[in-house]
Amino acid sequence: MAHKPSSPIVVENPWERLNAFTDARIGLGRAGVSLPTSKLLAFQLAHAQAQDAVHCPLDVETLSNELTQALNLTEAPLRLHSHAQDRAMYLQRPDYGRRLNDETREQLQQAATSQQRYDLAVVVVDGLSALAVQQNSAPFLSTLYQMLSSDAADWQLAPLTIVEQGRVAIGDEIGGLLNADAVLVMIGERPGLSSPDSLGLYMTWAPEPGLKDDRRNCISNVRPAGLQIEEAARRFFLLLKEARQLKLSGVKLKDRSEDNVLEGESASGSTRNFLVAD
Amino acid sequence: MAQTYQTTVGSRSYRFASLAELMAKATPPRSGDRLAGVMAESAEERVVAQMVLAELPLTTFLNEALIPYEEDEITRLIIDDHDADAFAPLRHLTVGDFRNWLLSDHATSDVLTEVKAGITPEMAAAVSKLMRNQDLILVAKKCRVTTAFRNTIGLPGRLSTRLQPNHPTDDVTGIAASILDGLLYGSGDAVIGINPATDNVAQSVKLMRLMDEVIQKYQIPTQSCVLTHITNTLEAIEQGAPVDLVFQSIGGTEATNRSFGFDLSTLAEAEAAAQSLNRGTVGRNVMYFETGQGSSLSADAHHGLDQQTCEARAYAVARKFKPLLVNTVVGFIGPEYLFDGKEITRAGLEDHFCGKLLGVPMGCDVCYTNHAEADQNDMDNLLTLLGVAGCNFIMGIPGSDDIMLNYQTTSFHDALYARRVLGLKAAPEFERWLEEMQIFQDVSTHRLNDQLPAAFANSLRHLPKEPRHGT
């Protein structure tokens, strides 16, 4: 069939309005069979933001000041560093990111010489997105600290720590050294193309080095366009109270708490949709 | 029985303590082998290991198990199922000779089909370590592995796609929207396959029904699959759910698979259950497996082997159960196993070659995560190379962006690029359907219809007015 000179160079998809029903990149249109320039560049921008999120270093100074102010801390957070010296090493050696370097481990040990036990240690870790940590830490912790202080039970908090080049499991070493019953690790998650700023929350009861994933509970996708700060803090606090009551965390705790948020929609079992409506 | 391997280059002597060490050190560099501490310590040591490996008789791999026979059911599978008659033409060869033979005019497509049951995963892995990328492409292209269920996949000159309409909350309208988008770009002949966000039986059954209804209504000559744990699919079959294909992620050691929660007997049980449903129309291949270098190390179940050798052993598991599709999800695992575009590309070509040589219907999830040193250009390169190599299928996802799994893979557009530039077509049954449904103006020149085909225009009238909250 001859290509009519009047036909457009970029063919729009007549089903483009389906975009209202999913964040998937559907109805993009095409130039021949290829992506139109505007859609190509939109993708490139999203990928660039995700990559920047991985490689952008955490501004510890600024974050430390923000947290001190927002939480009315009497002492600035302790600044720690993993065994991974830089980002290149961090990306290739997950085992290095799971333990403190010798220098900051000593600092932490000195800070924790008192015999005092704590109910919770909060550990802020850059992870794979410093952006997520930079943006969401202070608002989340303000909300959480408020919940803890207005709770009927007493919650003793260990000194707040900030870790560079860390992975989730580094919280277990820190929580153990601080004599904390539970540890909360707030960490930048692997950035998705549409979510470079997603914070993950991991909780371990009775933290110590060497624990596996099945001992942790996770709340994921905490960010302005994802799980809201208030809701994330509420869910975490529920988990924490449950953990303290049962003296455990991880798979066993999850089985009991039965989080139904995702299931809400699917529980209906209906497959009704426009493709098979008649 | 285990011997050591040594040689001298100039004034330096090299010694490799075991066959596993020799294999690992002969492997082209990648971060996962560095992480495991099995990688060559220098560029020279790597090539020396390749030279020593080239001199080894292929029969070495029948006499010396990399993981002991008594300890690992996959070693037992490899040894017990080895076909000595098929191996006879290769019996006298060293690994280096084997490379020459594979590239030679003796190794035609028919001959390669005859010998495949005589080749073990370790032989395939060993020879691949001596091969350049073009060797991997050339030999894979000669291998023919064709499978069928409701259409025929892997015929020469064909490139199929898995339509992957994932959604972060499994919303049915959102999934249906991605399915429609894919079908209208000619995607979905390998399978319409959903990774569920909520991984339980009830949710899987619901998604199976959704896809079954779409396939039936539009009479699409394809199959569906929910990529849930194999035990969930078994339960779904018991409940009477419309299961076309059984999915499972598999690895190359027994301990890897146990960490995934299954063993070979589970796979046999699931294959029999899916066969009993008799849902295929042109064939009876009912399994869909996914693999990927690094999974054994990640499960701490690699027995000191390099990650590519572990991966090749997974194909012995796959071929036992006559799958419709086997997919190496090459860049998903992250940069601690495959650091950048170069390592991902090499691994994709190795996996495709080893799978095809062993008679496995290999496809590839040409993909990367945002913390890997890779981008769309690397994916374009690997996609093109695999298209040239005769890869059975790739993924198709809206705009390359999987909004549920948070990684990037090939898009509907990418598949059409590859088909156009390499003159490849969809599976024949599916291609006829694309023409009948008027999705293409001319399917032979890959000219899509500018208008919405009538059958689908009608469906769009049933769209809800307002998106539901949270979708």
UniProtKB/TrEMBL annotation, chain A:
It holds the Pfam family EutC. It comes from Vreelandella glaciei. The keyword Lyase applies. Its EC number is 4.3.1.7. Keywords: Bacterial microcompartment, Cobalamin, Cobalt, Lyase. Residues 259-278 are annotated as: Disordered. The gene is eutC. Adenosylcob(III)alamin binds at residues 168, 189, 218. Belongs to the EutC family. GO terms for cellular component: ethanolamine ammonia-lyase complex; ethanolamine degradation polyhedral organelle. The keyword Lyase applies. It catalyses: ethanolamine = acetaldehyde + NH4(+). The basic unit is a heterodimer which dimerizes to form tetramers. The heterotetramers trimerize; 6 large subunits form a core ring with 6 small subunits projecting outwards. Residues 267-278 have a biased composition (Polar residues). One of its GO terms (molecular function) is ethanolamine ammonia-lyase activity. Its main location: other. Gene3D superfamilies: Ethanolamine ammonia-lyase light chain (EutC) (3.40.50.11240), Ethanolamine ammonia-lyase light chain (EutC), N-terminal domain (1.10.30.40). This is Ethanolamine ammonia-lyase small subunit.
UniProtKB/TrEMBL annotation, chain B:
Transmembrane segments: none annotated. Binds between the large and small subunits. Pathway: Amine and polyamine degradation; ethanolamine degradation. One of its GO terms (molecular function) is cobalamin binding. Its cofactor is adenosylcob(III)alamin. GO terms for cellular component: cytosol; ethanolamine ammonia-lyase complex; ethanolamine degradation polyhedral organelle. NCBIfam families: PRK15067.1. Catalyzes the deamination of various vicinal amino-alcohols to oxo compounds. Allows this organism to utilize ethanolamine as the sole source of nitrogen and carbon in the presence of vitamin B12. The basic unit is a heterodimer which dimerizes to form tetramers. The heterotetramers trimerize; 6 large subunits form a core ring with 6 small subunits projecting outwards. Belongs to the EutB family. This is Ethanolamine ammonia-lyase large subunit. It comes from Vreelandella glaciei.
